[in-house]
Task: structure prediction
Amino acid sequence: MSENYTVSRHILARFEEIGIRHIFGVPGDYVLDFCDDIIASPIKWVGTCNELNAGYAIDGYARMNGIGAAVVTYGVGGMSIMNAVAGAFAEQIPIIVISGAPPARRREAGAMVHHLVSNYYLQLEMFRKITCDSAILTDPDKAPAEIDRVIRNCMEQKLPGYLELPADIVHAICRRPEEFLKGVPAVSNPENLAECISEAAAMFNKAEHPVILAGIELLRYGLGAEALKLVEASEVPFATMLGSKSVLPELHPQFLGMYHGGWSREPVKLQVEGSDCLLSLGVWITDLDTGLFSMNFDNRRMINAGGGRVRIGNHFYEQVQLGDFISGLMKEIQPRSYLVSHPAEAIHAKIPFVPGNTDTLTAKRLYECLNFYLNDQMILLAEPGDAFCAAPAFHIEEAENFIVQSYYCSIGFCTPAALGVALARPGRRPVVLSGDGAFQMTAQEVSTLVREGCPAIIVIINNDGYLIERMLHQDGYYNDIQMWHYSELPGIFDRKGQSMGFRVTTEAQLNEALKTAVTEKDKVVLIEACIPGRDCSTGLERLGKSFREAQQKK
Ligand SMILES: Cc1ncc(C[n+]2csc(CCOP(=O)(O)OP(=O)(O)O)c2C)c(N)n1
Ligand SMILES: [Mg+2]
Result:
């Protein structure tokens, strides 16, 4: 047993090994010793305004970096971060949460210590439900193996993990494991793989109108490049979805556009649903990705790979990993030049934005203007609300330049996530497109963006409340929010002039504000874009219409 090797040192050593360069969180007395060790290590501590925001920040960090970690205190901190952890679980993002905990002697005595809710295992039990693995580190002899197991599972399964670290264990001496932390990626069953590839290739090669539907798992498993090879080798048209937007380049001549079931642009819908061989790669059939399940798929004409299995018609092949399937299929396909009729519309090119002389700014013109100013050094984060409904309006060429919580849809995610994104990818600039309601949820994190020198651009769509909810349902004053002087927030959060705010009501003002934002590349720039009435993207109009129609049928 090495003299100075402690449980805390082991955690930090592993974190360095797996590429964690920042730990986000909020301290509390049960974790102060561990926080001391963090700031003495090469890993940088990034304090957030609250634990929920730390959770969103590490989600953003992990989407860029492969993994992220937060440290919180017991009870008050652990309970606060839970919504973000649940989101990462739903969206399959690997993050690790370490929570401090009361020392063993208190737990053993069942003492009523501060931050305790009911019993000493409640928090662990709650985290168990929203993580793939968890451990309470009560025994220093076992701690290194438990820490390694949780980290390994978290990375392999691409899901959150939880470690509870009692205050008296932080500096307990433990054994330094000899081996590195080796992950064992999930493997395919070779027979199943070979058989399903041969069945899939036969169907694919025979088809007259094959189409590839690129899904969210391509993003989660970093398979965009591999899928692009398949697209190019086969010369088949492809579509993406909200959760997988830009996983394949949107200026590609084979790109049809984004598919959202019945809400899709007509040519995209016709080609995807009319295909005699729809090759669906890592697609999640979620309500928002399929126009409230309005897709019209015929399993007999589909090859469905994802979630570790492949389905072809009514044949099921278990234990087939998506990456193995794509690379195996690529070797078997015969390229032909398929007709890509109606490829993605010209919105996907950079149309210069010429501001009109109108008094009011419309949602459409806001998105056109933002699209013009986006570049490949920017990462767009779109909040649930009109922001993510407008996603097709933005041309994004690289997979990692677009972030959305398209499934869990927790509003307020994007501003703190931008903090994680910026620190994970210095040199790229996060651009948050947020509703006013979403922004109010986590607005304090603008101050951390300023403090950490992360030059995010934050565009707040000020449409005076929860517009998406007004559109989905009959309206009520529960959808009203307090009007803020959004553009004055930089003056509140920043005493050093590292940020600036604009309030824009016309196209010309918006254009100027975005032009300045691009020039002021070291500053946090907050733009309040005022959109009057119920003006919104066509995406939100469609969503509202479908929801209201579904309600009438009830
Ligand atoms: C944390 C959380 N609370 C509540 C909701 C329910 N919800 C979904 S969208 C929305 C309103 C969004 O309003 P805003 O951000 O202003 O966007 P807009 O629709 O006006 O563009 C709410 C409250 C949610 N998704 N997440
Ligand atoms: Mg709003």
